[in-house]
Design a protein that fits this description.
Elements lengths: L7 E4 L1 H15 L8 E6 L3 H13 L5 E8 L12 E4 L9 E9 L3 H12 L4 E9 L12 E5 L5 E2 L15 E3 L2
Helix pairs in contact: 1-2
C-alpha cells in the first residue's frame, strides 16, 4: 500500500533484518540457553520475534516472556509514569534476562522493566533496543545493545506506532 501520506522510509525491511542479525551475533556470546528474553509489549514484539529467531541462528535457544508496561497510552507523548498492565509469567530467579524493546526515548519503560526483572530475581539483566533516539536529558538507563542510532524524528513501523497505528509497517519510517 502506498499513498502520498506514507512515512519516509528510514530503515528498510532488508536493513532491519541485517541489523537484527548483527545484533544477535553481538548478544549471543553474552547469554546462554537459560536466558529469558523479556519482550516489552506492545512495541517490542516485532523486534523480539526477529531477535529470538536470529539468536537461535546464532546458536542460542532462549526462553521467552513478556512484560506489558504503558507510559504512552496511545498518545505521542509519554505520561511520565509507567503502568504495569501484564506482569512476567516465567520464573527469573537465578537466570539471566535480556529485556527487548523497540525504541529508547526517555528510558522510563526500559529502566522500570529492568527494576522489575531484577526484583523478580534475575541474576543478570541485559537490555537491547532496536532504535535509540537522541534525548536532551540524561536517561535513567543505557541499553547494553542497540541496533540503530535513530534521528530525533517521530518514528513509526516495526513496532513503533502513531497513536496505536502503523506498528505493522515492515520498515521504520518518519512521520514528521
Amino acid at each position: 500500500m502506498t499513498d502520498a501520506t506514507a512515512p519516509e522510509v528510514l530503515v528498510s525491511q532488508q536493513e532491519i533484518a541485517e541489523r537484527v542479525e548483527a545484533l544477535a551475533l553481538q548478544i549471543a556470546p553474552r547469554i546462554d540457553d537459560d536466558t529469558v528474553v523479556v519482550c516489552l509489549l506492545t512495541g517490542g514484539l516485532w523486534f523480539a520475534a526477529d531477535l529470538t529467531r536470529a539468536l537461535w541462528r546464532a546458536g542460542r535457544n532462549v526462553r521467552f516472556d513478556a512484560l506489558w508496561l504503558a507510559s504512552y497510552h496511545d498518545e505521542r507523548k509519554s505520561s511520565g509514569r509507567c503502568e504495569v498492565r501484564a506482569d512476567l509469567q516465567r520464573p527469573l530467579v537465578g537466570r539471566r534476562a535480556l529485556i527487548v524493546d523497540d525504541v529508547l526515548d526517555t528510558g522510563l519503560s526500559l529502566s522500570e522493566a529492568a527494576r522489575l526483572v531484577k526484583d523478580a530475581g534475575a541474576s543478570d539483566v541485559l537490555t537491547a533496543v532496536f532504535a535509540r533516539k537522541p534525548w536532551p536529558k540524561p536517561r535513567p538507563i543505557t541499553p547494553d545493545f542497540v541496533a540503530w542510532e535513530a534521528p530525533a524524528r517521530y518514528l513509526v513501523g516495526y513496532g513503533l506506532d502513531d497513536e496505536g497505528k502503523s506498528r505493522g509497517l515492515p520498515y521504520v519510517g518518519a512521520m514528521d
